[in-house]
Write a structure and sequence with these properties.
The structure is a single chain. A hairpin with a 5-residue loop joins strand 18 and strand 19. The protein is α+β, with helices and mostly antiparallel strands and 356 residues long. It is built from five helices and 19 strands. The termini are far apart. Helices cover 16% and strands 30% of the residues. The protein has helices spanning 28-51, 136-142, 269-280, 308-316, 351-355; strands spanning 59-62, 67-68, 72-78, 85-88, 94-96, 101-105, 110-118, 122-131, 145-146, 150-152, 156-161, 169-172, 185-189, 194-202, 209-217, 293-301, 304-306, 328-333, 339-345. Mean pLDDT is 78; it is low at 8-23. The strands form five sheets. Strands 2-8-7-4-5 form a five-stranded mixed β-sheet, with no helix packed on it. Strands 10-15-14-12 form a four-stranded mixed β-sheet, with helices on one face. Among the domains are: 59-131, Immunoglobulins (Immunoglobulin-like, Sandwich), CATH 2.60.40.10; 136-217, Immunoglobulins (Immunoglobulin-like, Sandwich); 269-355, no CATH class.
């Protein structure tokens, strides 16, 4: 049979009139916020570009040769257009000095990383190897110089080297670690009173050094306090009652005489050294010093200024007298016999110290 052809199926027409094509739309507030942030970023970028300082070639230099513990080392940052300097000498303390040159004393041998940050953008670091002083006790005996025990402020003080074979001299006179004179004979004028320490390094060798303590005195007399006393009224004679009689007015008592100043108990040099040694081993404390000290006491321990309590804490860190040399104690007393200034120096005893 012939195949019948089916009529085509009606195709349903879809009405798309109500279907709108999707359109991407940005909220107006978001749009304006993006515009404002873009403008602000451009201003910040322009400001930083205008005030930016290029990081010039930075070099961190210090002297050549061996460096030994307990001696001054001077570092210098060489850079153009340097305005601010932040130093770190490997002791976890930052120093914002604003100076391209700094001096420091490394008290212990070891490896230290010295870093300088210039203009808060340029950084340079160098490792410094600090050695233990060889034969420090014997070599330091060969360095000698003459200096007065006492001097006056605002007057010239002369120091003269007497070391045999010396050809180069470095005098440290201002207690800031800077070299103040390079001649065999040096002069200096101290501006403030107190206990000062002068250092001399010979032939550029850090282990050939010597130091002396000098007491600087202000010779100007203090202005006396003028006490004005009222004139004494004469005593009136007693009269019997009668015409014109009046009671007798007693004269005021005379002021009591000024009591003499209270003197502080005396303690000699050997007793002071023994007291320091007993603090090292824990038998004494800072309170044992109080009866001998003035209220305005100035204390230095190993050339560092600190309080009595801080010094005693440093001394107790040694714990044993066999680790140290005999302590050096220098004091200056006032008119009431109390200690006004005290300088204590304690150094570690080496094997050579025990032999010799």
């Amino acid at each position: 049979m012939p195949k019948q052809i089916q009529p085509p199926t009606a195709i349903t027409t879809l009405n798309m009139e109500n279907n709108s094509s999707p359109v991407f739309r940005i909220d107006e507030q978001v749009f304006f916020t993006m515009i404002c942030l873009s403008i602000l970023s451009l201003f910040v970028l322009a400001y930083r570009y205008k005030n930016a300082e290029p990081c010039e070639a930075l070099k961190l230099n210090y002297r050549d040769g061996d460096i030994y513990a307990g001696t001054y080392v001077t570092f210098k940052a060489e850079v153009k257009n340097g305005k601010s300097y932040e130093w770190n000498f490997g002791d976890n303390k930052e120093y914002k000095t604003g100076k391209p040159t700094e001096s420091v004393v490394f008290s212990k041998p070891g490896i230290y990383t010295v870093t300088v940050l210039v203009n808060r953008s340029c950084r340079e670091s160098r490792k410094v190897y600090i050695k233990e002083q060889p034969l420090s006790r014997e070599l330091s005996k060969t360095v000698t110089f003459t200096a007065p025990d006492t001097a006056y402020i605002n007057r010239v003080v002369t120091f003269t080297d007497a070391t045999k074979g010396a050809t180069k001299w470095e005098w440290f006179l201002d207690e800031k670690g800077t070299i103040n004179n390079t001649n065999k004979q040096a002069t200096w004028i101290f501006k403030e009173a107190g206990l000062k320490t002068v250092y001399l390094r010979v032939n550029g060798l850090s282990y050939m050094e010597s130091h002396k303590d000098i007491v600087i005195v202000d010779p100007r007399p203090k202005k006396p306090v003028v006490k004005i006393e009222k004139p004494k009224r004469p005593a009136r004679k007693e009269v019997s009652e009668g015409p014109g009689w009046a009671p007798i007015v007693p004269s005021p008592d005379e002021p009591a005489p000024t009591p003499p100043p209270v003197m502080t108990p005396n303690i000699d040099q050997s007793a002071l050294v023994k007291l320091v040694e007993e603090i090292v081993i824990g038998k004494k404390t800072a309170s044992d010093f109080s009866r001998y000290l003035c209220d305005d006491l100035v204390v230095t321990y190993n050339n560092k200024r600190m309080t009595v309590s801080e010094m005693c804490n440093k001394l107790r860190e040694w714990k044993n007298l066999r680790k140290i040399k005999t302590p050096e104690v220098h004091v200056r007393k006032n008119t009431t016999n109390c200690i006004k200034e005290m300088a204590v120096t304690v150094k570690k005893e080496t094997l050579l110290d025990k032999i010799f």
